[in-house]
Specification:
The protein is of the alpha/beta class. Helices cover 33% and strands 22% of the residues. The structure holds cytidine-5'-monophosphate (C5P).
Amino acid sequence: MAQPVLQGRSILLAIGGGIAAYKSAELVRLIRKAGGDVRVILTRAGSQFVTPLTLAGLTGNKVQEDLFSLTDEVEMGHIELSRAADLVVVAPATADLMAKAANGLANDLASTALLATDKRILMAPAMNVRMWLHPATQRNLETLKRDGVRFVGPDAGEMACGEFGPGRMAEPATILEAIVEALAGPTVIPMPDWQAPAAAAITGPLSGRHVLITAGPTHEPIDPVRYIANRSSGKQGYALADAARALGARVTLVSGPVALPDPPGIAVIRVETARQMDEAVEQALPADLAIFAAAVADWRVEDEAGQKLKKDGNAIPPLRLTENPDILARIARHPTRRPPLVVGFAAETETVIAHATAKRLRKGCDIIVANDVSPASGVMGGDRNIVHVIDAAGVATLPDMAKAEVAAALMQRFAGRLRSGA
Ligand code: C5P
């Protein structure tokens, strides 16, 4: 029996038009099982994928579809509908619904409720990978995050349209977890201060540039519950993403599993494995500057087990490893879309500069940022770093600084290189 963690809580669920709408019926079932009450707003497009009758049956409530229904206005007006719930969930959140919400459009019941509500909003986006990565959608995502909207997913994977990448709606069980989390804090959002100035776009030396950054470790599955990982915290890569944004860039951060929150104003694509990271990087091109700060696992398990490996007497399962794609080397030698400036990182535990210099040539990148990650250095997982910047001209060593300062100093250099076209 599931814990009734949503007992006494009510959810307003807006269902947009996408193939993932079928998963929303399962989400309704999970919310109900957890003790929650659900009211559904079904968009016209959503009703092409799931019927009002199914949803009325699952929720035990009338499904709302029409902004201008007199009977509904008498029973419960659309403003009241948007505020009677403890949380507004949009699943699937289509590109269209996100665009409407980001721009304050209110031309149907779902978008009107999103604009009129005084409650937290949680969106579970679902759309084609190109639509998700389109600068317009990413701009809308940034705007919505700035407005306090929470997001769960999208996941990367094979999509209904046959393409691969980020855009799949998060699984219903994951959305349920995000709902519980969103309800943990205060749910009524205070009235915005109408006298406060609107957030301004940042202008700087990287304005108009797209910066692509990888960060964090990768997890390479052994079976559904075990994986191979490393100690990378993602801090340096996330700090670089912040620094690039502070200089005005549009930033895409492809992140392995880390405990860090999404930095504001940055398109974050979360992945687990090296192959997913490789795919996400490819999808995010073109870029003006690509920085590969992730600690990508060199190997993965060749035959990932479909089921949890069982202890079987004394037999120890052999783990046969196979090589992962080298993302940096591949992008640095990309036949058509090599970014004008490609930067790699070299985490070394001995003869740091010599190894990193050789690595720059082997990988084909313009710059290698080398650091000492021997346990005595405290760099892995720590907040400080000493880096050596190695390019064709030689080596420059930066002083011992906080990772945020290292990131700012590096980004200034990269911006200078891009500007001079060197
Ligand atoms: O692991 P290695 O020392 O070769 O990593 C050096 C650089 O290559 C780093 O910038 C890292 O992000 C990148 N790399 C990668 N894909 C791999 C391995 C490393 O992009 N499979």
